[in-house]
Amino acid sequence: MPFGRRKELPSHLWTQCPDCGEMLFNKQLARNMNVCPKCEHHFKIGARERIEMLVDKGSFEERDPLLAPGDPLGFTDTKGYPQRIEAARAKSGEQEAVITGSARIGGTPVELGVMDFEFIGGSMGSVVGEKLVRAAERALAERNPLVIVSASGGARMQEGTLALMQMAKVVAATARLGDAGIPYVSVLTDPTTGGVLASYGSLGDLVLAEPKALIGFSGARVTDQTIGERLPAGFQRAEFVRDHGFVDQVVPRSQLRDRIAFFVSALRPTAGEVRWSL
Amino acid sequence: MRDPIGTIRSGATALGLRRAAEDNGDLPADGLLIVDVSGISGRVSAWDAVKLARDLKRPHALDLIERVFDRFQELHGDRSFRDDPAVVGGIAHLDGHPVVVVGQQKGGSTEENIQRNFGMPHPEGYRKAIRLYRLAERFHLPLVTLIDTPGAYPGPEAEERGQAEAIAKSIETLTRLRTPVVAVVLGEGGSGGALALGVADVVLALENAIYSVISPEGCAAILWRSGTEAERAAKALKLAGPDLLALGIVDGLVPEPRGGAQNDHDATARSVKAAVVAQLDRLSPVPVTELLAGRYERFRRIGVFVEPETAPAAPRRTWWKRVLGR
Ligand SMILES: [Zn+2]
Description:
The structure holds 2 protein chains of 2 kinds.
Chain A: E1 14-16, E2 23-25, H1 26-31, H2 47-54, E3 61-63, E4 68-69, H3 81-92, E5 98-105, E6 108-115, H4 126-142, E7 146-152, H5 160-180, E8 184-193, H6 194-197, E9 206-209, E10 215-216, H7 220-227, H8 238-243, E11 249-250, H9 253-266
Parallel strand pairs in A: 6-7, 7-8, 8-9, 8-10, 9-11
Antiparallel strand pairs in A: 1-2, 3-5, 5-6
Helix pairs in contact in A: 4-5
Chain B: H1 4-15, H2 46-53, H3 61-68, E1 70-74, E2 87-94, E3 97-104, H4 110-115, H5 123-138, E4 143-149, H6 156-160, H7 163-175, E5 181-190, H8 191-195, E6 202-206, E7 210-212, H9 216-224, H10 230-237, H11 241-247, E8 252-254, H12 265-283, H13 288-300, E9 305-306, H14 319-324
Helix pairs in contact in B: 3-12, 5-7, 9-10
Bound molecules: zinc ion.
Zinc ion binds at residues 17, 19-20, 22, 36, 38-39, 41 of chain A.
């Protein structure tokens, strides 16, 4: 797991590509943004890596870094929710499943939210909802574009219906941007499913996706169980979703930063007059 | 930390709602709602609520539409693909006022359930709903939504036609819809597929309805790796009426007849009608900008989190910096 944050052992000098089976030097992978140089397999990356790769160097200013979940339901399955949060922090090195902040991309100031799949599957609870709403509200106040990079299995079960409501809470905030003519770019990475896709993930003025990312409403597991082998080839992959009309572009990781930079500069907010200049 | 109980108490005051009679056997005729958890005597277990909410004999959307509204004219189709039988909607009179009503439709029998796809909408069902929301907005008619679904249909055709996008767009449309919206959870409020009809100025639930982020069976399968733990999952998910009220998910519970809504469709309909009419009486004079601001705030304040004052630790060093020794 090249994207893991565990202490590297000497044996971790190599990583095997799950797609083509090639043994890859970790250094080689790191220089290539964790994309297999042989088959273009896009390894999952953490939110910090994503931010480093997308923003102008030194421009990222994190917001609300310590916002932490409560335990409103007193939820316990095989583990209590607070213990699960602690374990997720230790595993991911992050406080929650989204990192938000202000940054520049290709010189354009943006508000940015990036989800981290290593934190309880990038699940959306009250903290993810609140941080993203604050990011959207800053975008509205500053008239800066909003960019959200998703990687999530959906709403966080341990917060019950409160987690479900975060879908409406975030969408209400991104919808205000649309009314105000402020662009919102949604980037879907592997995997983006469930409540995140069924809310702000699908609602960008532009929706971009990384190659072969799993993108679907129902987890592939559910759909798989329901109909088994009848699934079409490439089902719920980024290219499939693009071909069915729900993603604007599939963008390789190496081009993602420049592509977002182009879009946020072309779609700069205006006060209503037609833009006919750079 | 936000206190969810405090949130709903203040919310309830703002709504001008009053506490219902303690004995739910005598249904109040004046639109009174249960807005205080302590007003509920002898609440049923979470699992019993799940069973009641799914009872085949429970009044479903059309059972209530026919009793609550007059002159209902059903409108079909999403104008793009087909008519989804799991979503019904149209124009009707409510207490003499024209309104638009949209609901999810389950069947009262296996046969009818197959025809209605067990109340699980396809994307075109949500797109029909959106079309009807827009109709209400354009002609300044109040919108009433009736929620009752195990969830949006998870099949491959639904994925191909953009199930997630349809739900997202339905939620988005409601957040900014320039007309009063009242939502009522009738039975099962199953996840995002239910929320697509659930963004409203006032969200009510029938006393024995449930509203959940995932089905208890699905939750049990993932967290306990066993479908037989559904009863435990139902309890943990806090999906029953009184929990939803305490958490601020719903603004009030609509009292059901003794033993549950399945026992008396007419009495349930009277109760729903009184509640919805009372809310629309209150909402209809509110200027639309205030309405939208209130709707935004209603959802904006949902969530429980803490905000420590301490200084954050230095961010984790990225993987590639460590590998490359930078
Ligand atoms: Zn490869």
